[in-house]
Write a structure and sequence with these properties.
The structure holds 2 protein chains of 2 kinds. Chain A is an alpha+beta fold. Chain A folds into 2 domains: 76 residues, no CATH class; 159 residues, Immunoglobulin-like, CATH 2.60.40.420. Chain A is built from 5 helices and 10 strands, in the order αααββαββββββββα. In chain A, the strands form 2 sheets. Chain A has a 5-stranded mixed β-sheet. Chain A has a 5-stranded mixed β-sheet with strand order 4-10-9-6-7. Chain B has one domain: Up-down Bundle (Cytochrome C Oxidase, Chain A), CATH 1.20.210.10. Chain B is an all-alpha fold. The N terminus of chain B is likely disordered. In chain B, 61% of the residues are buried. The longest helix of chain B has 36 residues. Chain B has a two-stranded antiparallel sheet. The chains are: A alpha+beta, B mainly alpha. At the A-B interface, helix 2, helix 3, strand 7 and strand 9 of A face helix 4, helix 9, helix 11, helix 12 and helix 13 of B.
């Protein structure tokens, strides 16, 4: 019964928030929620009262009254003020979370590439710089994109040597500005981190700027939120928010693996970490 | 004119009409390829009812899979076609078929149920009758507007016989998914057929709309000014304008999508896709979304504005009161229609279009809440000091208003772009669209059916069955769609085949079950309506000429009007909502009844002499 009643208290249903701007989005939701609840009770209350009070009586007659301009103007202006202020307040948060000009200085940069059905990530490695790929050199490297080289990495570039990829999992440090540049190699996908309150469609042929700053370590999930075919539901990935030192260790390990894999044959495409992550509970 | 002469005139007109249409028309011109607007309205009603059950059946498959993922569909599971299930006879539906189901559910409900009901059926039935005229301005065009719908439906359903099955890219059919089928050029897929089918229904809509606009402008009864028209006609008129402006844009988008899909052009496909090097590239996937929503957002209003008009008429009649703020209602409809064309981008906040546009579209979208709330307040004002009779039509109209309030409020959440970041493409959106399209449009359609059935078929619907249908529908509707809000807030994405893949959705399985139980009950409750419609056709009480004691012109027509509609000359003397005028014995004052009046302090007063003055209000 408690569970049934909790359907009416919507605010408790959100998954735990781990993102710095997540509170702002949740609070904005709560503001609109309480305004809506108030309007709901106001209008339903008035309606219920009228329906009972003015229910059919044989001797009664409807009141011939065509409306009043002053009343109309009042109930035009009041909602305008209310809704316009919600709009202006929302816009402030929107600009800070989504505008490319407001993108924070990146502590960690990751490229994201969606595919049917999975997520691939490219890290710039130890030097913190990407080599030539479809993001850094779109004109020359887009044509290198293939099923085995989704980021169009030009392996002849020395800066690409330590760039490493992961599949269906990624790791980020806690309390750092993480900037993703996302795209897709086939159809539309949507990069949805429910706990981080992040959602952005990724579009083939274009790179999207996505950022977040996560304050809590732990393992979380990434989902695709845009229908991308029959396997849409299975387009799941995991990510782990690590402490700074653990993250650096992980990067070092990945970099040495990537260099080792490339060294014998420098022209070969980087080997993706294709370990499919099992569901957390399995 | 005395009563005696009126009746005499009526008799001769009636006889003449009978003679005319009995002798001239063979049966297939009377019942199948008829140009009579009432027959066309009935045809729209029957086809929409049929598709309502087809679309509803698809929805129940979806709900079964979400509540009981990977379990065989009960009862009919073993007889499902092999291509729908994981292995023959297993009854477990495949992810691919699931994507086809959600696509077909959305497409059918929108293009073959709600638009044909709201615009095709009510537009055809109400406009000529409520304007006091014999038929549409362009009856043959009108006939074609219906006769494109069955072939369009067949074309869409024929997707079943293609290699890939039905279309499976969602009712929005975003490319590249919808453009790139993996098949060779010149191969027909379900998606190709979908595109052709929607193109055809769009064409049908345009033909209907052109007709409505010309009828409203040219064929009003003597004395009827634009502001003497009932709100139903106003709403349909403005809807028709939206259709004529918006649908051609959709047609353009569909044509481009068809070429990408069938001829392998690249309007919407960028270069160097990893999956397919066959395409030339250079296209932009987001362009389709702009073109699509430029039509499909106004289409949301195409689906709700006519019902807003109908509900206003029903509420006035059963509250025995004038509609509060008639002109404000008209301006609000026009305002919603205009704003409807500048808000399409709110479907695309997270699509990757420039976030600067997000700001613009957020502000324009939020403004649309203003005319919507004006309408709600005016409906409440209409109830104020009324004498409210809870007929089936009125109950459905009240459900429309209250569910539209909830649907409208949940719309404010997604209008706010930062809130939309989280709830976009989750079940919160699904809850919202069903509150406005089922809670809004479909309850409005039910209200209209209960209200005009007597004039359509000359029989009364059974009120008791009507009330039972309403109560069951109202309860199960809320049971089905309200919990979807919390599914969405839990993060449940829409269009996923199996929520159990995700750990953060595991706690929501009991809500999914609740929704499914509600949906099944909701589906079966609709059988009462069908039974009522069919049973009353034969056994219903004979309907009197004006069963609801309403004022609008359709009630001046005979009980079961034939070709040509009216058996007397119609002159309009006043506005459509003169209820409870002081100094009159009956509490209503039909538009066609001679007599003069004037307005003092927002009230109508009878003027004794000067019977030549047309009604002022």
């Amino acid at each position: 019964m408690d569970r049934l009643l909790s359907i009416f208290d919507m605010l408790v249903w959100f998954p735990e928030n781990i993102s710095t701007f997540g509170h702002e989005l949740d609070n904005l939701f709560a503001i609109i929620y309480w305004v809506s609840v108030a309007i709901f009770f106001l209008t339903f209350g008035v309606m219920g009262y009228f329906l009972v009070k003015y229910r059919y009586r044989k001797e009664a007659r409807g009141y011939n009254y065509h409306g009043n301009n002053l009343v109309e103007i009042t109930w035009t202006i009041l909602p305008t003020i209310l809704f316009a202020s919600i709009g202006l307040y929302s816009d402030d948060i929107w600009e800070r979370t989504k505008y490319s000009s407001r993108l924070p200085q990146a502590d960690v940069k990751v490229l994201v590439m969606g595919k049917q059905y999975g997520w691939q990530f490219l890290y710039p490695g130890a030097d913190g710089k990407f080599g030539r790929n479809a993001y850094t050199d779109r004109d020359n490297c887009r044509k290198l994109i293939s099923m085995t080289n989704p980021f169009g990495i030009d392996s002849s570039d020395a800066a690409s040597m330590d760039d490493f990829t992961t599949e269906n999992q990624f790791k980020v440090p806690v309390n750092a500005n993480i900037v993703f540049h996302g795209s897709s190699q086939d159809v539309l996908h949507s990069f949805f981190l429910p706990h981080a309150r992040v959602k952005q469609d990724v579009v083939p042929g274009t790179w999207m700027n996505i950022w977040c700053n996560l304050f809590k370590t732990g393992k979380y999930e990434l989902a695709c939120a845009e229908l991308c075919g029959g396997g849409h539901y299975s387009m799941r990935a995991e990510y782990e928010v690590l402490s700074k030192s653990a993250y650096e260790q992980w990067v070092d390990k990945k970099v040495s693996e990537a260099i080792a894999a490339r060294s014998p044959q420098p022209v070969a495409a980087p080997v993706a970490d294709t370990t499919k992550v099992a569901s957390l509970t399995k | 004119m005395s009563t005696a002469t009126l009746e005499h005139a009526a008799d001769t007109a009636h006889d003449h009409g009978q003679e005319h249409h009995h002798h001239d028309l063979p049966w297939y011109r009377k019942y199948i390829f008829s140009t009579d607007h009432k027959v066309i309205a009935k045809q729209f009603m029957l086809s929409s009812l049929f598709f309502l059950f087809v679309g509803g059946a698809f929805a129940l498959f979806i709900r079964w899979q979400l509540a009981y993922p990977g379990q065989p569909v009960p009862v009919i599971g073993s007889i499902l076609p092999d291509t729908w299930v994981t292995e023959a006879g297993s009854g477990i539906i495949t992810p691919e078929f699931y994507a086809q189901l959600l696509t077909m559910h959305g497409s059918i409900m929108i293009f073959f149920v709600i638009i044909p009901f709201a615009v095709g059926m009510f537009g055809n039935f109400c406009i000529p009758l409520m304007l006091g005229t014999d038929d549409m301005a362009l009856p043959r065009l009108n006939m074609w507007s219906f006769w494109l719908v069955p072939p369009a439906g067949l074309v869409m359903m024929a997707g079943f016989f293609t290699q890939t099955g039905y279309a499976a890219a969602g009712w929005t059919s975003y490319p590249p998914l919808s453009a790139q089928t993996g098949l060779d050029a010149f191969t027909i897929s379900g998606q190709t057929l979908w595109t052709i089918s929607i193109f055809l229904v769009g064409f049908s809509s345009i033909m209907g709309a052109v007709n409505y606009v010309s009828t409203v402008l040219n064929k009003r009864a003597k004395g009827m000014k634009l502001f003497d028209m009932p709100l139903t006609v106003w709403a349909l008129f403005i809807t028709a304008i939206i259709i004529t402006l918006g649908t051609p844009v959709l047609a353009a988008g569909l044509a481009m999508l068809f070429m990408d899909n069938f001829l392998h052009t690249s309007f919407f496909l960028p270069d160097n896709l990893a999956t397919s090097q066959k395409y030339f590239g250079g296209g932009q996937p987001i362009l389709f979304q702009h073109v699509f929503w430029f039509y499909s957002h106004p289409a949301v209003y195409i689906m709700i504005l006519p019902l807003m008009g109908i509900v206003s008429d029903v509420m006035a009649t059963f509250s025995r009161k004038p509609v509060y703020g008639y002109k404000a209602m008209v301006f609000a409809i026009a305002g919603i229609a205009f704003l409807g064309f500048v808000v399409w981008g709110h479907h695309m906040f997270q699509s990757g279009m420039n976030p600067l546009l997000g700001t613009t579209f957020m502000l324009s979208t939020i403004v649309i809440a203003v005319p919507s709330s004006i309408k709600v307040f005016n409906w409440l004002g209409t109830l104020w000091r009324g004498n409210i009779k809870f007929s089936s039509a009125m109950l459905n109209a009240l459900a429309f208003v209250s569910m539209f309030i909830i649907g409208g409020l949940s719309g404010v959440f997604m209008a706010s772009a930062p809130v939309d970041i989280y709830i976009h493409d989750t079940y919160f959106i699904v809850a919202h669209i069903h509150y406005v399209l089922f809670g809004g449009s479909l309850f409005g359609i039910f209200a209209g059916i209960y209200y005009w059935y007597p004039k359509m078929y000359g029989k009364m619907l059974n009120e008791r069955l009507g009330r039972q249908h309403f109560i069951l529908t109202f309860i199960t509707f809320n049971l089905t769609f309200f919990p979807m809000h919390v599914l969405g807030l839990g993060g449940h994405m829409r269009r996923i085949y199996d929520p159990n893949v995700y750990d953060f959705l595991k706690g929501l399985s009991d809500i999914n079950e609740l929704v499914t139980i509600g949906a099944i009950a909701l589906g079966f409750s609709q059988l009462i309506l069908v039974f009522n419609v069919l049973w009353s056709l034969k056994f219903g009480k004979k309907a009197p000429r004006n069963p609801w004691r309403a004022n609008t012109l359709e009630w001046a027509a005979p009980e079961h009007p034939g070709h040509g509609n009216f058996d007397r000359d119609i002159t309009v003397y006043r506005g459509p909502y003169e209820f409870g005028v002081e100094g009159r014995q009956s509490d209503y004052w039909p538009q066609w009844e001679p007599g003069a009046s004037k307005t003092i302090n927002h009230k109508t007063v009878v003027v004794e002499d000067d019977s030549r003055t047309f009604g002022a209000h």
